[in-house]
């Protein structure tokens, strides 16, 4: 069990909620930072209801001032952030040739630059204190590519490369940086993206499921334990690593 403070962006729903709930159950004091404050408050209430400690805080990862204000609120109410989980993200399914620069900017601003903003706000304090765990949520799309997700794949590939370099830069200061890459995961966001793509949702979901050796999609609860390992004191000699949680869909 740990009583360290963990900040999870995009922690209100889906994979983020699975991560926040797992960390809360393991004794972390969890700050659930999300654009949807109402949903974040509900998740915090659920964690607190099972004996955990949780705080809901509103954040827009595309806005540096919002990120800095959120971090200040967390640290004033829970204490210094010792574990950072960059989970906030967004995607939509379409062929690359159908995308435009507005779409590129939105994907990169949330999925890549959003993580950079939060790291910049949190990691200097970790370096000063001599301890920190950064866990960035990538995607197997960033490792092997994914049809209809070219820009998203690029943003997650960039996040993986960024994390490896960050890990090298902070390795002597007691701070680690690792990536967890979910495979296809059954979340409300996935269902919404599939529905919005104009394809038969059940066909798409069925195809994803058949491609996974375990013959099911991941769940948010599958992702939390991988994050919790990287966040733990036991993972102090593990840094710059990328771990896929995909039911065997990717194995390299």
UniProtKB/TrEMBL annotation:
NCBIfam families, alphabetized: PRK07231.1
Entry annotated with the keyword Methyltransferase: no
Similarity comment text for this entry: Belongs to the short-chain dehydrogenases/reductases (SDR) family.
Pfam families associated with the record: adh_short_C2
PANTHER family recorded: 3-OXOACYL-(ACYL-CARRIER-PROTEIN) REDUCTASE, 3-OXOACYL-[ACYL-CARRIER-PROTEIN] REDUCTASE FABG
InterPro entries, alphabetized: NAD(P)-bd_dom_sf, Sc_DH/Rdtase_CS, SDR, SDR_fam
Signal peptide: none
UniProt GO MF annotations: oxidoreductase activity
Protein name: Oxidoreductase
BP GO annotations: monocarboxylic acid metabolic process
Keyword Oxidoreductase found: yes
This protein's UniProt keywords: Oxidoreductase
